[in-house]
Amino acid sequence: MRVRIKKDNPGGTHRTPYYIMGKHGLILNSHGLLTGYEFDHREDWGPLYTVEFDMEEIAGIKSIDKILVDVHEDWLESD
């Protein structure tokens, strides 16, 4: 499924890298809800997904390389 990463923080996790904000990618994997992370925060950020980005989308260069980033659902929009 194609998605776009929100440009603005939706209010949950701040751990989404700035260089993917506003970029388009492809969901490769769903990790579901994570448990056992209460030591770090109290919010439920929803399911976690691995999203694949083309280098051209991220850096504007033609390459066969890809970037994989784990992103929580509250950052994702349908593309």
Defining traits:
79 residues; mainly beta; SH3 type barrels; five-stranded antiparallel β-sheet; 1 helix; 6% helix
Could you describe the 3D structure shown?
The chain is mostly beta strands and 79 residues long. It has a single domain, classed as SH3 type barrels, CATH 2.30.30.50. It is 6% helix and 38% strand. The protein has one helix spanning 55-59, and strands at 2-5, 24-32, 48-54, 66-72, 76-78. It has a five-stranded antiparallel sheet with strand order 4-3-2-1-5.
Please outline what is shown here.
The chain has 79 residues and is mainly beta. The chain has 1 helix and 5 strands; from the N terminus they run βββαββ.
* CATH top level class name: Mainly Beta
The gross shape turns out to be globular
H and E string? EEEHEE
CATH architecture: Roll
The number of helical segments is 1
**CATH domain topology:** SH3 type barrels
Question: What are the low-pLDDT stretches, counting only 5+ consecutive residues below 50?
Answer: none
The overall number of domains is: 1
Residue share in helices?
Answer: under 10%
Question: What is the topology, as strand order, of the major beta sheet?
Answer: 4-3-2-1-5
Instruction: Profile the largest sheet.
Output: 5 strands, antiparallel
> N- to C-terminal separation?
8 Å
Secondary-structure-based class equals mainly beta
Mind telling me the C-alpha Rg? 13 Å
Overall pLDDT score? 87
As a percent range, the share of strand residues is: 35-45%
- Let me know the number of strands: 5
